[in-house]
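Quick one: Wadjet protein JetD C-terminal domain-containing protein from Geotalea uraniireducens, C-alpha cells please.
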Amino acid sequence: MQRPETGRLLEALPYGKTMLDKIWMILSEVATVPPGEQRTLLRSMLDAIKDAEFIEFPRMTTSWDRSALPHLPKWINRPRTKVVRQYAEHVIWSPELSFLSSKKELADSPWLKIDKWLKETRNFIRDSVPVRERSLEIFGDEKMLDALIGAQAFKSSLITLDALSCYYVPEPAAWERGPLGSEKLPGVCIENSTTYDVVKRFNREAGIWGFVVYGRGNGFASVVEGILPIMEEFGHSRILYFGDADHEGLEIAARGARKFSAAGRELELEVRLYRLILECGKFAESKTGGVLSPGATDLIRKADLNELPGIFLQHLRVSQEWAGYRRLKRY
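--- reply ---
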C-alpha cells in the first residue's frame, strides 16, 4: 500500500508470533480503514512488510483464515535479528545518507540500494515520480519503499521523499463544486455516500457550500490528503464536517481534524446539519458510546453542540440520513 501506515503497523507489531485478532487490533490503532476494505488493506500491508522480510507467514494451509477473500494468515512471526550478522564495509555514503556514516548497516540493508541509486543518478535530472514508481526503480519491488517510509530516518526527517525525487500519492477525494457565487463559502465534508449524494444535489441549487466532498466513512482520515488540494484551489483554510451524531462519528471527525491541523487547516462541525437531525431525527441505540476523546470534545464545544456528550453516554445515536433532501429544502 502507498501509505505511511504500513511502516506504523510494522513498528507496532511485537517480536515473535502475533495472532490475527491481535493484528486487527493493532491495525485499528495505526490506520483508519474504509468500510469493506479491511481485509484487502490488511493483506496488502502484511504483504509489503513480508516482502521487506520483516515478518514471516505460516506455511501450513490450515494456518490461514480462508473464511473470506483475500485469505489472511492466522498468525505472523516477527523474528528477532539473528546474532550472526554480516555488515556492509567501507561504504562512502551519498550526502543524502550522511546520517548513516556513524552506523553499521547490514550487508542486505535497503539503504545500500538507495545509496547506489543516488550515486548512479547524481548527474542526471531526476523527474519527480510517485513513491511506488521510484520503489520499483530502486528495489525492483513497488512496495519496498512503502515499508521503509515508516523507518525512524524518515519520521525524523533525516531523509525525505524529496531526496529521492518522489512523492506520496494520496487517496483521491470525490467532490463537487458549488454553484457560481459560492466559491468563498467553506466546503463541507459528508461522512457517508448516501448523504453525500443528497447534500451534493441540494447544494447545486442552494449554494450554501463552496464544495461538497465525500468523507469515506471511517476512512475519513485517510482521505484528508486528497481534500487538501481542493481547499488550496479554493483558497480555504477551514472545512466543515457532517456525519452521524454518535460516539464513533465524532471520533472519526476528530481523527480527521488532527490531520487537517497538522497541515495548517481547520475542521469544524457543520452545526446547521447536526441541528437539523437532532431536531427532526429519532434517537436509536448505538453500538458505540461512552466518554469522548479530548479532540472530539473540543469539536463539540466549538460547535456549541453540548448536548451530544450526554447522548453518547446513554449509547444513543441519530443517523445522518435524517438530513434527507426534502428536510434540507424545508430547513
